[in-house]
Amino acid sequence: MINPEHWQPTASIDLLLKRAKIIKKIREFFADRCILEVETPILSQAAVTDLHLSSFETIFNKPGVISLEQGQKFSLITSPEYHMKRLIAAGSGPIYQIVKCFRNHEEIGKYHNPEFTMLEWYRIQFDMMQMVNEVDDLFQLILDSEPAEYISYQSAFIKYLNLDPFAASRDDLIATVNKLELGFNAQSEDIDTLLQFLFTFGIEPNIGQDRPTAVYHYPASQAALAEICCEDHRTAKRFEFYYKGVELANGFKELTNAKEQKARFEQDNQARLSRGLPAQTIDEYLLSAMESGLPECSGVAVGLDRLIMLALEQTTISQVMSFTMENA
């Protein structure tokens, strides 16, 4: 129900001015490194196949078409990743973008809004750790933070839960979940869900409190767009950044093999169908771009509203956003 009295922005004008200055500083950071700013579509003919993401959908009716059934379906992007990789395959070189993204079935809360702002960038011939270092450089600039701590996913589990995530059995994971005494029914969950629960409630509260923490080498099963590590096929070249209890960034050494990427998309769709979710249209434009030759690259997506929230010492993203979904 709309309440017309709630017309005011959720952020103060003072904080919106400070937000603008931070975005200006971010653009200067990339300009100094000769990284091109780009714009890509908000609407896409394909949607992501990720099991845990859900897109908003709309119908485009050409002139003279009045029936929704005759219109063309488009999805609002959950990330600009696919379009940006097409630019890279076309020879753009290193690029970045500040863009609105949309995720359906997303909660509205301290750190979530179905419409949000993403900062995403890609570096040609960067390996994963070079990308981690550059994210660290940006965060030190914007957050005025100390250099980040780096820890592998496996080491974090061993340090905080006394559990090797790659050697533990499903029963070991269930037993560790039960030790947290959070009332979570672990018996019916798969291994990745159990690992994610343990990471969220057993590890996240312990990392990134005094300075940002980069966690790297996630399980291969949790990195559908990342290269698999040659040294250990159980792990992928994926990393995330955490600071003060907030997940800020998710990055990859990008998979460049089109055949492998198509197989992963198809596996995602099979998993969606097995859970009663609709299969998604696979992005054939992306696969064609990869087939033509996507150069070796690394990329990262940063939740810009969260980053600005921390930089301005606020407690919710609504305090640094003009309007949230609730009064959009």
Give the N-terminus to C-terminus distance in angstroms. Answer: 12 Å
Helix content: 25-40%
| Number of domain modules | 1
Q: Tell me about the biggest sheet?
A: 8 strands, mixed
CATH class designation = Alpha Beta
Order of helices and strands: HEEEEHEEHEHHHEEEHHEH
User: What's the number of extended β-strand segments?
Assistant: 11
Average the pLDDT over all residues and give the rounded result.
95
Strand order of the largest sheet: 1-5-6-11-10-9-8-7
User: What general form does the structure show?
Assistant: globular
Low-confidence stretches: none
Residue share in β-strands:
15-25%
Separate helix tally? 9
CATH fold name, please?
BirA Bifunctional Protein, domain 2
Using only C-alpha atoms, the radius of gyration works out to 20 Å
From the helix content, strand content and strand pairing, which structural class follows? alpha+beta
Name of the CATH superfamily: Bira Bifunctional Protein, Domain 2
CATH architecture: 2-Layer Sandwich
